[in-house]
Amino acid sequence: AQSVTQPDIHITVSEGASLELRCNYSYGATPYLFWYVQSPGQGLQLLLKYFSGDTLVQGIKGFEAEFKRSQSSFNLRKPSVHWSDAAEYFCAVARNQAGTALIFGKGTTLSVSS
Amino acid sequence: GAGVSQSPSNKVTEKGKDVELRCDPISGHTALYWYRQSLGQGLEFLIYFQGNSAPDKSGLPSDRFSAERTGGSVSTLTIQRTQQEDSAVYLCASGTGGETQYFGPGTRLLVL
User: Fold this and answer.
1) Residue B36 has what pLDDT?
2) Does B20 contact A at CB distance below 8 Å?
3) Helix, strand, or coil (residue A70)
4) Is A104 an 8 Å CB contact of chain B?
């Protein structure tokens, strides 16, 4: 069965430092992968997605992610973190194909220190 | 334009009561999804509607949970005989059936 693992429950990064959030997936075919962000009391906002083509995808707010099939990973990165990036980040894979239900990881909470 | 809206934003109920949660998707979106977000289980898929097709109910945790979508637009998630373990944030999302799902702000349900 498909699954998503986010190994880090909580990460603290200094403002201006780089960030990498890890995501590993289990899926038999070419996956549809997503990163969402959830700020306190807010809904989920899509940061970026991958389903084919270039394995390095750019998203909103300066985020990018790289799909590595050999490692079954889709890690999220940002070169310089801002205090407003503090939130919870979720990696997800589409259960069957585009448009079907998403399977989410447990999430990683990002704290930003000044 | 308007996003996905959900009502109520918060709901407190007593164990054993029925509750109805509403979702208004983005106009024109044919796909509608319900998820549940709880501390213990994270984000879980509940049910998925796509156009006139039969809904995918495979994520519903028990027969106390049901959902309908009227006129291909508004959806109502009903929980009968609520239990304390039903306490969670219920999220609705809509889409065009492609890759992106747009989420609403959620309904926070507390069962006492």
Assistant:
1) 97
2) no
3) helix
4) yes
- A103 close to A4: Cβ distance less than 8 angstroms: yes
CB A4 within 8 Å of CB A105: yes
Q: Which two tokens stand for residue A85?
A: 């990036």
B40 at the A interface (CB within 8 A)?
Answer: no
Report which of A99, A24, A22, A36 is spatially closest to residue A69, judged by C-alpha positions.
Answer: A24
Q: Is the peptide bond before B8 cis (omega within 30 degrees of 0)?
A: yes
Q: What is the pLDDT of residues A6-30, one digit of tens each?
A: 999 999 999 999 999 999 998 877 7
Tens digits of residue pLDDT in A29-52: 778 999 999 998 788 999 999 988
- The pLDDT value recorded for residue A98 is 64
**pLDDT tens-digit series, residues B27-80:** 999 999 999 999 878 899 999 998 888 899 999 999 999 999 988 799 999 999
Query: What's the CA gap between A17 and A5, in Å, rounded?
Result: 24
CA dist A86 → A8, A66, B106 (Å): 15, 21, 20
CA–CA gap between residue B79 and residue B107 (Å, rounded): 13
Task: Say if the Cβ atoms of B31 and A99 lie within 8 Å.
Answer: yes
Residues of A in contact with B4 (CB under 8 A): 43
